[in-house]
Amino acid sequence: MTRKRDREQTRQELLATARRQFARAGYDGTSVRDVAGAVGVDPALVFRYFGSKRGLFDEAMAAHTDAMIDAPLEQWPRELLGRLVFQDWEEYDGEHPLIVALRSIGSDDERDRLRDEICAAHIDKLADLAGDAKDKQLRAELFAAWMLGLGILRSAVRTPALAKAEQQDLQPHLEAVAEAIFGRPIPGPE
């Protein structure tokens, strides 16, 4: 007698396994068969739940961009510091999701999609911090690049000072950079 699977639990297991495998091998190096086999299900189930390998990848990677920051605009830099720099990314096998996404880019369409996701999730909102500045989009992209660079150096490269720094160690620097880029003070934690 075969055991009946819990659909949602199986879906979540497939997503968790896919995140780890995409993190290790990228999109091209991961197969639906590998993901399904690691969970102990038929590969056809992946297609039933996600439609395609691309659907599985998109949903697995969406975990880091779907949750928009629910905080007042002035707190966005601090919230991003926590998310982009200090999150441990255990669900991506310790890899920063941007590294996983970059490892998986194989076409201009995929690059454009990643850019659109990053802009929608973070950069467009950060641009509002620059108020009426004519170059507010540039300022937002500069700040985002700084934040992503911190996250990658801390989680992927593991540079010594950043790897051992705590959020409160970086907070004064975050506030100084945010004020320099956005042209106004950015409040720290309450």
Fold and architecture overview:
The protein has 190 residues and is mostly helical. The protein has two domains: 7-61, Arc Repressor Mutant, subunit A, CATH 1.10.10; 65-182. It contains eleven helices and no strands. It has helices at residues 7-25, 32-39, 43-50, 53-61, 63-66, 76-85, 97-103, 108-127, 136-157, 160-164, 167-182. α6 runs parallel beside α9 (136-157) and α8 (108-127) crosses α9. The protein is elongated and about 55 Å long. It starts with 6 loop residues before the first helix and ends in an 8-residue tail after the last helix. The model has no long low-confidence stretch (mean pLDDT 82).
Total helix count?
Answer: 11
The total number of structural domains is 2
SSE run: HHHHHHHHHHH
Question: Using DSSP, what is the number of strands?
Answer: 0
Q: What are the SSEs and their pairings?
A:
Layout: H1 7-25, H2 32-39, H3 43-50, H4 53-61, H5 63-66, H6 76-85, H7 97-103, H8 108-127, H9 136-157, H10 160-164, H11 167-182
